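Incident review: delayed structure delivery

Summary: a single-chain prediction request sat in the queue longer than the usual turnaround. Root cause was a stuck worker, restarted by the on-call engineer. No data loss occurred. The affected request and its eventual output are reproduced below so the record is complete for anyone auditing the incident later.

Affected input:
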Amino acid sequence: GDIIVSGNGRLKQLSLTSLFNYAYTATGSLEVESSRAEEAVTGAILYVLSDRDVRIGVLTGNGQQEMPNFTALLVNNNYVLETVVAATDDLSGYDALLLLAPQSDLSEDDVRKLEEYLYNNGEYGKTLFYSASVTQTALPNLETFLSEWGVSVGDGSVFETTAERTYQYQPYYPIADYTSETWRDMLIDSSTPILMPLSRPLEVLFASRDGQYTEVLLSFGESAGVRPSDAGEDFTSDDAQQWGPMPAMVLATRRVYENGALARQSNVVVTGSTSMLDEICLQNSSLSNSSYLLNLFNT
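Output delivered after worker restart:
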């Protein structure tokens, strides 16, 4: 019942069970929830056509959140993941790094290592994926680093006042819009929504500056507001001071052009929602979270 994908001198074996997402029923039994066959087979094809493994370092040491469904999604699509500590490990061998909602600030040395990693001795070609969380406090070193790439992570939680733009009518589980047509058009069905639960608001500080560029990938609509982190229990939407549209995910790049053509580029992807990487978002076939993220990483 297994599937073998071969080509380019490489092999990938897919077990039958790896073609589906599973969930426990109320009685405790395991049942098939949805199919992930297309994702699994596409990933296997990409694997055998590739000349090398793509390595991703998962940064630890600052209270980062563990998102097992997200890391499993990447592993199941043939990325090689390893945990790394910025302070002690060599980062240069990784194609991308994950920095998932650290609860304590990075040191100045750690930030310097991230800058050196993305510069890559002038070769660029590296990516940092950063996710923010409503559980975080002020992180001045990290926030300064992100601002130099053109992105600011704001205070508070994004809520949605239009019920149809929420998940099961929960205001702090808002749907985001596909702002970038390039990434939207990569989806098989762009009418499938993307969910951004418990998200912090983002701000783009510049569109372009000295070889740096920002692109809003996802954004919250006009009916979305922000609840400040210090708001009391009696907070209502009428008390909100900040309203959409506002960015939900931003791609920041540093580029080198030669003879008018793009020669090298490094990227920092910033999402306001770490919860968009959780099981409820990634394994729901009615949402596009997993396919959108895979398109992003594959590209």
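Verification: The CA atoms of residues 51 and 295 lie 19 Å apart.
Action items: add queue-age alerting; document worker restart procedure.
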